[in-house]
Amino acid sequence: MFERVEVYPYQRKQEQDKQDNDNRYPAGRGKNRRVKKIAGLRIKDVAGQVALLVAGFLLGRAVLLGELLPFGAAFVAAVFAVYREYALAALLGAVLGLVYVATGWNLALHIITLVAVAAAALSLPGRSRNARFLKGTVVFVILVLAGTGYAAVTGPTTYDYVRVLFESVFAGLLTAAYLGALEGLRQAAGHEPVAAEKVFCVALFLASLVAGAGQIRWGMMSPGGMLAGFVVITAGYVGGAGLGAAAGAVMGVLPGLVYSVAPAALGAFAFAGFLGGLARGLGRVGTVGGFMLANTLLTVYLGSSPGIISVLAETAGAALVFLLVPAAVLNGLKEYLPSMGLFVAAQRPAAGRNEMGVAGKIRRWGAVFEEISRAYDQVSGSLEPKQKCGDRRLIFSELQNMVCAGCALHRVCWERELLNTSRCLERCLEIVNNNGRVETEDLDDNLRRRCSRTGELVMGVNCLYRLHRMNRFWENRMQESRRLASEQLRGMHGVIEQLARGMEAESEPWHRLAEYYKQELKHSGVPVVSLALYPCPRGCEVEVNMPACGGGKKCVYDVAPLLSRLSGENLTPAGRDCLHMRKDDFCSFRLYPHLKFRLKLGVTGCAGKGSAVSGDSHAILPLNDGRLAIMLSDGMGSGPAAAAESRAALTLLQQMLQTGFGRDVAIRTINSLMMRRLPEDNFATVDMCVADLYAGKAELVKIGAPPSFLVRQNRVEVIRSNSLPVGIVDEINIFSVSRDIKGDDMLIMVTDGVIDAYRETGDGKEWISSVLGEIIDLPPQEVADLILRLAQSGAGEGRRPPDDMTVLVARVEEV
C-alpha cells in the first residue's frame, strides 16, 4: 500500500510535468511559426501590390499608335478577375500612368472608364466557361459607350468614332490576353503546368510592359530596352533559337506600334534572339555572348554614336540581370516548354487532337493581326486627305467669318458679287502657292476699291493658306502611320504563322520521323548534318542541311529518291542545279512533295575594272509551300564595299522572308537600315523573283534594278521599273508584277553592267532581246555564259568592263 502511495504521487507529478511541458514548449513554437507565417504573407502581399502597381503604371501610360489607350483598362479588368486582393494597386498604378499622358476632360474620361471597368469586373463571376470572352466583351462595351458619349458631347467627327472603335477592340482583345497571362503566372507560381496559349499570352503581356517602359529613360538607358533584352535572352536560353527569334520579333513589333522604333529593330531583335538561342549550348555566358554579339553588330551597322552607346548600355544591363537570376528559376521555366512542343502523340490520339489545337489557336492569333491590318487598310482608304477644292471652300468660309464678319459690305461681297469675290480669292491662293505669300497689290482692282479691310484680308489669306498646308502635311503623315501599322501587323501575322509551322515541325512524332530519315541517309552514305520535317497541305516538306557536294547534285540524285521511297511521296527540290560549288561549304535545300514545276538555274559574273571583287551578289532561297526566291543585288560602285552592301541587303532579306515577314515589310526594313548607316550614300538594287512552283506563277519585284527578260517560245517580254534603289529615300516605291509561267519559259535577270555594255552604240537593252530569241534552246548555264561574253566584248577586246556584271538565268521545267 505504501508503495502504491509512493508511486501514484510520483506518477501524477511526472504526468503533470509532462503536461506542463507539452503545453509550454509547443505553444512557443507554434507562436513563432505563426509570426513567421504572418510576416511571410505580409512580404508576399507587399511584393504583389508593388508589382501590380508598377505594371499598372507602365500599361496606363502606354499609348498605342500615338492616341489609343487600351492597355490600362485591359490590365485593370484582368487583375480584378484574377488577383482581386491586389486589384486596387493595379487600378492606382493605371491612374498614375494616365496622369502622365492625358490631361483635362480626356484624363477624367479615362479614369471614369477604369473605375467602371473595375466595377464591372467585380460584378462578373470569377470563373466561368467563357470568362475571357465575357470580360473582353464587357470592356469593349464600356469603352465604346464612354468614348462615343464623350465624342458626341465634344463635337463628333468620323475619325473620332473610328478611333474609339479601334481603342475598344484592342482593349477587348488585350483583356482576353492579359487574363490568360495572369492565370498562367499564377499557375507557374503554384508549380502547375501552363498551357502553350497562356505562355504566348505571357509573352504578349511582357511585350506590353516593354512598350509602356520604352519612353522612360535613366540617363543613357531605358528600362524598356533592358526589359526587352532580358526577355529575349531568357527566351533564347530557355527555348533555343526558335523561341528566341519569336520573342525578339514580338518585342520589336509591339513597341514599334506604341512609340517610334526603326523598322529594322524587328529584324535586329529577332536575329539577336536567334543567335543567343544557338549559343545556349555554352551555358548562360554563351547565350549572353551570342545576344550581345548580334545586337552590337547590328547596332554598329545601323545607328549613330549616341545610339550605339545607349543600346550597348541597355544590352549590358539586361545581360547582368539575366546572369543574376537564380538557375532554379530558369530551370523551372524550361519545365513548361515541353507542353508547347508535343502536339501529336501517335500512341494517344485524343491527346494529340487537343495538342494540335495549340498550333491552330496560335494561327487564329495571327489571323486576328491580319484582320486588324485589313481594317487599317480600309480606314486609310476611307480617310483620304481632303481634296483641293474642299480646302479652298473651307478657306473662303473661314475668311468670311474672320475678316468680313460685321462689315457693312458683307452682303455685297458674299451674296451679290459672290462669283467675282471667289475668283479674286482663288487668284490670291494661286499667287501665294507660287510665291509663298500674297500682297495687297495682288488683289483685284474692284475688290481693292470696294473692300475696307484689305490688310486683314491679305493677312488672313497668307495665314490660312499656311495653316492648311500644315494640316495637309500632318494628314499625309497620319496616312503613312496607318499604312506602316498595317504592314507591321501583317508582318506579325506572317511571323506567327511561321512560328506555328515550326511548333508543328518540332512535335514528337515529326521529330522521331525526321531522326529516322536522318539515320537512313547516313546509313546510305549521305552525311546529313540536320533534317527537319514541315507538315503542309500537300504532305510534308523536308529541309536538309549537309556538306556541299561541289556540284555533284546529291540532293537530286541521292537524297530526293531515298526520301521519296521512305515517305511514299514524290519529293523533289525546287532547283535542279546546285549552286554550292565550294566543298568546304554546307548546303541547305528543301524538298517539296508533288511539285508541278521546278527551275533549272545558271549564273555567272565578273568584276569590273579597278577591283578583283564584284559588287554584285545573288541568292537562291527555298520558301514554304513550294516557293523559290531568286534574288540579285548590285551594290553602289564596285569592289569589297559594294559587295558588302549587296550581300548585307540580300542576307537580311533572306532572314526576314524565312522568319515569315511579308515582302513589302522586309524591303522597307532593308531600306530603313541602309538609310541610317553611318557611311553616307550607300545603296543597293534588289531584283527578286518568287516562283510558286505549284500554282505556276512568278512574282517579280524590282527596286532600282535594271530590266529583266521573260522568254516564251520566240517572244521576249521586257520587264522594267522606274523605282529607286534601297538606301536613297525614306519612302521607297516597290514595283512588282505577276506572270504565269509554263514549261520551257526562261527568265533572265542581269545587273546594270550587262545592260550598259552597248550603251555607247545606242543599243542599250535591245541587244539582249535580240540575242535571246536565237538562244532559247540552250541550257541556262550556257545562256548565262554567252550573254556575259557578249557583254564583255562590248567593253572592247582585252579590256575589263567598266562595271560589275552578273547574269542569272532560270528555266521552268515540268516535273
TrEMBL record:
Provide this UniProt record's keywords sorted from A to Z: Hydrolase, Membrane, Transmembrane, Transmembrane helix
Query: Membrane-crossing residues?
Result: 71-100, 107-126, 132-152, 164-182, 194-214, 226-251, 257-278, 285-302, 308-330
Chain intervals with Basic and acidic residues compositional bias: 1-23
Q: One Pfam family this chain carries?
A: SpoIIE
Q: Does the keyword Acyltransferase apply?
A: no
Q: Spell out the molecular function terms from Gene Ontology.
A: protein serine/threonine phosphatase activity
> Cross-referenced SMART domains, in alphabetical order?
PP2C_SIG
Using the UniProt annotation, give all residue ranges assigned to the region (Disordered).
Answer: 1-29
Does DNA-binding count among this protein's keywords?
no
* Limits of the PPM-type phosphatase domain: 600-812
SUPFAM superfamilies linked to this entry: PP2C-like
Protein name stated in the entry: Stage II sporulation protein E
